Amino acid sequence: AGDRSRVTESLTTWFDIEQRKAQQKERSKQKGLQSRCRKTLDSVAAVRDLSDLKRLLIRKYGGLVRAWRCCLSLDDSMVLHKAEFLKACTRINGWQGNAKLVWKALDRDDSGLVSIDELDPQCAEILARFQAWSTQHFGSASATFKAIDVLGSGKIAQVEFVERLKTLGFAYPAKSLFHGLDRGGKKALMEENLLFLDRWKPLPFLV
């Protein structure tokens, strides 16, 4: 009788242990499933909020390069830290998105930095090619401005800008470039509008 009691007790202990293992395994499975669902929902929300952000910035500033320079990066840096981005998002009236999720969507390489090409790859490439072209042919943004401003007026209208770039051999869309350079939306460029290009080091793949 004593042996049967010990066997029964042993089986009961084993069953309890296995039951706890199964329960722990099920909890871990459910936790993992919930985590994957949360990540999926966050990813969907980030894409939606980023799309809404871009749409709002384009509506307000006419383009993302100008929006970057006027709203996101007030010092004309082409690179943003997370804290700068989150603070900038608080200045965007009418946007109700999750700035932290949008940051993750932009900072896909998890570098802790976001550059202009991650917001607008196409226009960033045009801007980078202009920067490289101007450095190669004229040496600086200031010298480039003087080469374009043949009248010496200190201001360059869009029509003049487009025509001069064509004459000088710049083969990329000049109208969208003008819009990004015209930070204040004054429909005319001054030398100061180009000076940030001397500080910018575009990523190699852009040029």
Describe what you observe in this structure:
The chain has 207 residues and is mainly alpha-helical. The protein is built from nine helices and four strands. The strands form two sheets. It has a two-stranded antiparallel ribbon with strand order 1-2. Strands 3-4 form a two-stranded antiparallel ribbon. Helix 6 packs across helix 7, helix 6 (121-138) crosses helix 9 and helix 8 (158-168) packs across helix 9. The chain is elongated.
SSE layout and pairings?
Layout: H1 2-61, H2 64-72, E1 79-81, H3 82-89, H4 99-106, E2 113-115, H5 116-119, H6 121-138, H7 141-148, E3 156-157, H8 158-168, H9 174-181, E4 188-189
Number of helices: 9
* Number of beta-strand segments: 4
| End-to-end distance | 87 Å
What overall geometry do the principal axes of the alpha carbons give? Answer: elongated
At a glance:
The chain is mainly alpha-helical. Helix content is 65%, strand content 5%.
Question: Any descriptors?
Answer:
4 strands; elongated; two-stranded antiparallel sheet; 207 residues; two-stranded antiparallel ribbon; mainly alpha
